[in-house]
Write a structure and sequence with these properties.
With 233 residues, the protein is of the alpha+beta class. Helix content is 20%, strand content 32%. It has one domain (4-230): Roll (2,3-Dihydroxybiphenyl 1,2-Dioxygenase, domain 1), CATH 3.10.180.10. It has four helices and 16 strands.
Length: 233
């Protein structure tokens, strides 16, 4: 039985600050979580979680979010609102002719506000995509781990999406640099309530064991070496 993706977790010096930023920007509720702050994703939208740790380092983050836009006014409004809430413009090498806008949240994590008319993200909702630096092997692993089919698979680029639609998760361009302890990670829940069965299933797909945390979460690593956690059911 595939596991369920509860959220992508971001470390921050002050987790409450980026949590408030994203709650306001996406119109979500803030839920005090065990050891962190959770912004549950409604329906098929990806959940976001913020925990104490190291702040993001612009240009070195392995994951970033893509927000969608209904039209140019909507894109401008999202960008202006993000700046008002504490975000900032950043330069990651984007070209002037590209239509998306690159920003960073108060914890230093980049995200993009995508231009309207992007067919690839059509129908995905406000939080259209989580893009990860990684290999095709990682994308295939997570497709099986979550039971999400591939919706893009060309060259080294892969993307998966819940069968119900919503936020896509994609992997693209990784130079093979060894992975340091990550500031960002996936948090999983056993789909059937059984943590041990979920961990065994992930082992069978190629995950490796790293640690067990005080809260009972099991720390594993995917084929690219990125750590993720399986919570108790």
């Amino acid at each position: 039985m595939p596991s369920r993706l509860l959220a992508v977790t971001f470390e921050a010096d002050n987790p409450a600050e980026p949590a408030r930023f994203w709650a306001e920007l996406l119109g979500r509720k803030i839920v005090e979580d065990d050891g962190g702050v959770l912004l549950p994703g409604a329906g098929t939208q990806l959940g976001l979680r913020f925990v104490p740790g190291r702040a993001g380092r612009t240009g070195a983050n392995r994951m970033h979010l893509h927000l969608t836009s209904a039209d140019l006014d909507d894109q401008r409004h999202t960008v202006a609102n993000a700046i008002k809430l504490g975000g900032r413009h950043v330069d990651v090498g984007q070209r002037p002719e590209e239509g998306h806008v690159v920003l960073a949240d108060p914890a230093g994590y980049e995200f993009c506000v995508i231009e309207p008319g992007n067919g690839y993200l059509a129908g995905c909702g406000p939080l259209g995509e989580l893009t990860c630096a990684g290999t095709r092997q990682a994308g295939l692993f997570w497709s099986k781990a979550l039971g999400w089919p591939l919706v893009w698979d060309q060259g080294e680029q892969t993307a998966i999406q819940s069968p119900r639609g919503g936020t896509k998760v994609a992997w693209d361009v990784w130079d093979g640099t060894p992975v340091a302890p990550s500031r960002q990670r996936f948090e999983l829940l056993p789909a059937d309530g059984g943590q041990r069965a979920a961990v065994d299933a992930l082992f069978s797909l190629g995950a490796t064991r790293r640690d067990t945390r005080d809260d009972g979460s099991v720390v594993l690593a995917d084929p690219d070496g990125n750590e993720f956690r399986v919570r108790p059911g």
